[in-house]
Structure formats: structure tokens, C-alpha cells
Amino acid sequence: MQEEPKVAIVVHAFHMEVFEEILGLVRALPARHKLFVTTVPDREMAARSRLEASGRDFALQVSGNRGRDVLPFLRMFPILRAEGFDLLVKVHTKKSSHRADGDIWRRAMLEALLLPDMLERSIEAFRSDPSLGIVGPDGHFLSIANYIGGNRAGVLSIGSRLGLSEQQVLGAGFFAGTMFMARGDALQPIIDLNFQDDDFEAEDGQVDSTLAHALERSMMLGAFSLGRRVASSANPAAEAIINDSYDFARKTNSRSKFGSVIRWMRNRPKL
Fold first, then answer.
1. Can you tell me the distance from the alpha carbon of 192 to that of 190, in angstroms, rounded to the nearest whole number?
2. Is 2 part of any domain?
3. Is position 183 within any domain?
4. CA 235 – CA 106 distance, rounded (Å)
5. 3-class state of residue 212 by DSSP
6. CB neighbours of residue 179 within 10 Å
7. Average of pLDDT values for 197-216?
8. Is there a contact between 185 and 80 (Cβ–Cβ < 8 Å)?
9. Cα separation of 74 and 193, whole Å?
10. Assigned domain for 258 exists
11. CATH number of the domain that 60 lies in?
12. Which of 17, 115, 208, 222 is a good FRET partner for 162, with 20 to 30 A between their CA atoms?
């Protein structure tokens, strides 16, 4: 009998009320899925008490308040891989206080990834298609070119280090919010770039133009460089379609001449 796949659920827990919301979703999932939680020092006790009360198997890692949810994820990744987890869900306690609709944005992404039927659909897609690298929340897959913001230099630098041209990078897409499900090896090219703590800016409430924001737009590039497929949670059997009418962010380069990630993947070079 084939063993049921287990999933590492990676959570960066900063806002504890949102962490409780995430734990509420996780409680409905099978016990074989383990929590890997990161937090900052002054939230450690609050996060630990909630984890212990949840009754779930968990690992907790504490690090400084730098790099938002991205740097803690990069540090947790080798730990979950060493424990034999091939599949992971990456989420965080997103609370966009600069947006009135931030709670709607967050809930849509969390439910697309962690509702039991959605998670099982994605697991089955990964099990049946070895070329599938990443699945993200439906409707949140955006054009890098159109939503690059103040991160152009950072994103292009990451792409160049992955062996991708400017046209390939700007023709690709990304899942807004840095929440997705992935096969571990699809993220390995990003991990192998070996970002250090000091590469990330000190936390100062920034809403754009940091390395964390550049990596939000670059997480899919590692999968693309390997020729892995990227899909949405609504239909993981098909290619993700870029959303050109996103309600939660303003385009920053609507004049992009580059096409969708689907066209680029069909014509990608063998790297």
C-alpha cells in the first residue's frame, strides 16, 4: 500500500490572533502533517503555548525580526527537508494594515491552501504529476513585470543568479503574499543562493523595495529554471493563469511587452 504523503506546514507566526486562525484550519487536517513554526523572540512564549495547546506535532524556531516571513522560511527549510518532508505549505500571519481589505486577502489565500479538500486536491496533483513544482492560491498569480514595484533590480539579480535572462524573469509570474504549496526540490535553487541574515534589511515597516519583497516575486523562478510546472489551487492539473485584474494591488508596469509564464515555459531554454 502506498504511504499517504505527509506535508510540512510552515508558518511564520508574528500576529498571534492570525496564528490562532491558522491553527484552527490545521486542526481539521490529518495528524501526519507537521507544523514547522518560526517566530520572533518576544512572541516565542505566546507561540509555544498555542502550539502545545493544539496537540499537533511541531517544531518551533526563533529568530530576529528581520526578513519578514521569508528569511525565517529559508532557515527552516533545511530542517523540514532533513525530517523527510518532500511537500510543504508556506503561510504566514499576514496582516496588511496598510490595506482595508487585508483580512479578506489573507483568508482567501489561507483557505485555498489549508482547507482539507483543497489540500488533498493539491497533494493528489503532486502525487500524480512529478513535473508539478508549486501550487498557489487561485486568483493570486500575478505578472512579475506588472507588479514588480520597487523591486526590479533585486528580482533581476535573483533571476540572473538562477541563469535566467531579463526577458524570462519579466515574462514569469509569482503568487502574491508568498503563500503557496511546493515540492521541496522546486525551491532548492532559491535555497542554494545562500542568502545571509545581513542581506535582509532591518525591519522598519516597509511595504516594498526590500529583499523580502524581491524574493516574494522570485520564489517561482527556481521552479521555472528547473522546468517545473506552476499551478493554481482551483485546478492544479492545469498551468497557472496570470490574473490581469487583481483587486488587491496596483500594477506598477502595465506597459510590459512580455507574455505569460505559460508561453515562456513552453519556449524555455534547457538550463
1. 5
2. no
3. yes
4. 20
5. helix
6. 23
7. 90
8. no
9. 10
10. yes
11. 3.90.550
12. 208
**Per-residue pLDDT tens over the stretch 181-194:** 999 999 999 999 99
Instruction: Supply the mean pLDDT for the chain.
Output: 90
Q: How far apart are CA 72 and CA 39, in angstroms?
A: 8
Q: What is the DSSP letter of 239?
A: -
Which of the pair, 246 or 222, is modelled with greater confidence?
A: 222
Backbone angles phi, psi at 66, to 5 degrees: -145, 140
Q: All 3 cell numbers of residue 263?
A: 508561453
Q: Residue 133 burial by CB count (10 A; 0-12/13-18/19+): exposed, middle or buried? A: buried
> What cell does 199 get?
542581506
Q: Which domain holds residue 171?
A: 7-266
pLDDT band, very low/low/confident/very high, at 245 (cuts 50, 70, 90): confident
Residues 6+ apart with CB under 8 A from 187: 77, 134, 219, 222, 223
pTM of the model: 0.90
C-alpha cell at 247: 483587486
- If one compares 155 and 248, the residue with the highest pLDDT of the two is 155
Whether 155 and 217 have beta carbons less than 8 Å apart is answered as yes
Largest CA distance in the chain: 53
The amino acid occupying position 237 is A
**Number of domains, the chain:** 1
Q: Is residue 271 part of a domain?
A: no
> Which distant-in-sequence residues (6+ apart) come within 8 Å of 36 by Cβ?
8, 9, 10, 11, 58, 59, 61, 76, 79, 80, 88
The predicted structure's pLDDT at residue 261: 38
- Report whether 165 contacts 268 (CB < 8 A): no
Instruction: Report the amino acid identity of residue 27.
Output: R
pLDDT, position 256:
36
Per-residue pLDDT, averaged over 91-119, amounts to: 84
